[in-house]
Amino acid sequence: MTLPSPGQGNVRWTDYRIDTPTFLLTPVEKPDMSPFLFHMTGRAAINSILTGEGGEVEPGHGFLKVCVPESNQQEGGYDAKVVCLTESPTFALDFFRYRSFRRWKDDQRYGIGFDKSELIALGARPCVYADEQLKNDIIVLKKHIETNEIKDEAIKGRLTSLINSIYPLTTPISEASSFQGFMWEREWRYFDNATGGFVFPHSSIRLICCPQSDEGGIREILGDAAEGVRFLRTWTEYDEVTAYMRQRSQEMFVPTEAMAKDTDDLIDSLKEQIAKHSVTLHSLEQYSEFIDSLGVKNNSAAEASHVLRESIAQMEKKVEQLQANGKES
């Protein structure tokens, strides 16, 4: 139910508040949040990751190798190797391929999604997006404490701990570049110098992004652990949501008094938009039924349908009110 304004009847905010813990927030509560951290990759790489190639792992485990992040590779002197993850919601993941030629060329429709709370407990942290000055200061201090003696042992310990913790998480804002950096990645990082990467049990995987043609092979690698994994086609979610938002912004809206010449004009505009919303809603519901018949989880279509139903109900109520007011006068 839509949250009423203060003073609108006998309303208690506590009846409406969203008190989901931050790490568990989903797009249902806040559309830009996700309770998962994803590592996006290509077709060949996801199989080698899941089989633990490149790491010393036991059966039933995978391995993500550390590397210097793409956003840091042009930065002189930066050499931290980490595992890169993103907290982008599933329906936004395919933006990465539109933004990066390398990711498109690597066909990064493949990804592994982990529970955010679990990875935080293991040491994963969000990136520190630093401007040019802060980034350079961190790099210089890192090199300084590695090559110079600091006599005060207490200060040395704190400074070393601080820099060693923040250095691997530092990524440039690139505020002066034309594309203004990589903040769109919503990047998190995991680093462990002892293992050279992130060793994880297959049972810790919550989601897998892949085409349906590859799902069988991945299920075979995961074995029994596949029963606890949801398989997604994130590019279809992205296409669906962006197409809906593009269409709505260009053609569909809720008319207001300020847009109309008079009451009759407003009623006509409302009825026209009710018809447009109804057609789109019908299409979405038909699409959702088709997706359901394939056994694919598809929350984005259901959420879009909910928004459309609310808009239609809002406009129908407005038409009834305007027509009632017209009869009274």
Report on this structure:
The chain has ten helices and eleven strands. It is globular, with a radius of gyration of 25 Å. Helix 7 links the parallel strand 10 and strand 11. The mean pLDDT is 84. Helix 5 packs across helix 6. It is of the alpha+beta class and 329 residues long.
- Mean pLDDT comes to 84
Distance between the ends: 32 Å
Structural Rg = 25 Å
Helical content band: 40-55%
Question: Could you state the order of secondary-structure elements as H and E?
Answer: EHEEHHEHEEHHEEEEHEHHH
Number of helices: 10
Strands, total number: 11
Oligomer: single chain
Strand portion: 5-15%
Question: Uncertain spans, ≥5 residues at pLDDT below 50?
Answer: none
What is the SS-derived class?
alpha+beta
Largest sheet: 4 strands, mixed
Categorize the overall geometry. Answer: globular
Main sheet: strand order = 1-4-10-11
Keywords:
globular, 4-stranded mixed β-sheet, 329 residues, 3-stranded antiparallel β-sheet, alpha+beta
